[in-house]
Design a protein that fits this description.
With about 250 residues, this protein is α/β, with parallel strands linked by helices. It is built from 12 helices and 8 strands. An 8-stranded parallel beta sheet has the order 3-2-1-8-7-6-5-4. The model has no long low-confidence stretch (mean pLDDT about 95).
């Protein structure tokens, strides 16, 4: 039985003081998640990672939103895996659609980052998803297949067992447009079938999240799908009360 995972992606939101205020209000929510065997996490900005990590219970996953695949070098503005590990961060989101769109994040670059993370015993959350044009043209599965196979190339079944995949249709992120639960299930099942083809039975252990305008009022219907193991949530994870309600609604 795959353990549910609720991960909040804060994107470029919250000052340090705002992030700390949120962190210091999480004890009750974390206790509730532990009681119901649900993994709970947040991905603050780089600026806030260390302080948030030091001010929350160890049962709350604190993830970076990105990382470079090299461990040092002339990469202005980037953050390395050793830097994250030095502040006890061992999760990272990779390939979010906003980075693919604005920062030239290719499948091949994602692959280098995923390999580097796994080699350092860290957990990648690998994001895949199609644009509105691709969706309307019926190319969703072709796009997803390419992203999965390229992003996870040169990895073994043993290496991917703790990997997390997040399916986020680009046309639903921050737009208020929601993919139906039927679409979410169909694509998450499709992803699992690709993983089965690539890695065998370990595909049944890999958690697949849905993301895209997820809110307290619709999260339950997504997680009722057999191949949707959790949610990657943006705006609805920024407010402590909304974050708590997201959790309550999947218990």
């Amino acid at each position: 039985m795959r353990k549910k995972l609720l991960m909040g992606n804060w994107k470029m939101n919250k000052t340090l003081s705002e992030a700390l205020s949120f962190a210091k209000q999480t004890d009750e929510i974390i206790a509730l998640a532990v009681k119901h065997n649900i993994d709970l996490g947040i991905a603050p900005t780089y600026l806030c990672l260390k302080d948030v990590k030091e001010n929350v219970n160890e049962n709350l996953i604190v993830s970076s939103q990105n990382v470079h695949f090299e461990d040092h070098g002339a990469f202005t503005g980037e953050i390395s895996i050793p830097m994250l590990k030095d502040i006890n961060i061992d999760w990272s989101i990779i390939g979010h659609s906003e980075r693919r769109t604005y920062d030239n994040e290719t499948d091949e670059k994602c692959n280098k980052k995923i390999i580097a993370l796994i080699q350092n015993n860290m957990t990648p959350i690998y994001c895949v998803g199609e644009t509105l044009t691709q969706f309307e043209n019926g190319d969703t599965k072709k796009v997803i297949d390419t992203q999965i196979r390229n992003g996870l190339a040169n990895l073994s079944s043993e290496q991917v067992k703790n990997l997390v995949i997040a399916y986020e249709p680009v046309w639903s992120i921050g737009t208020g447009k929601n993919a139906s639960k039927e679409i979410a299930q169909d694509i998450c099942k499709f992803i699992r079938d690709i993983l089965l083809d690539m890695f065998g039975e370990v595909s049944q252990d890999i958690r697949i999240l849905y993301g895209g305008s997820v809110k307290p009022e619709n999260i339950k219907q997504y997680l009722s799908c057999p191949d949707v193991d959790g949610a990657l949530v943006g705006g609805a994870s920024l407010n402590i009360d909304s974050y708590k309600q997201l959790l309550i609604n999947i218990i």
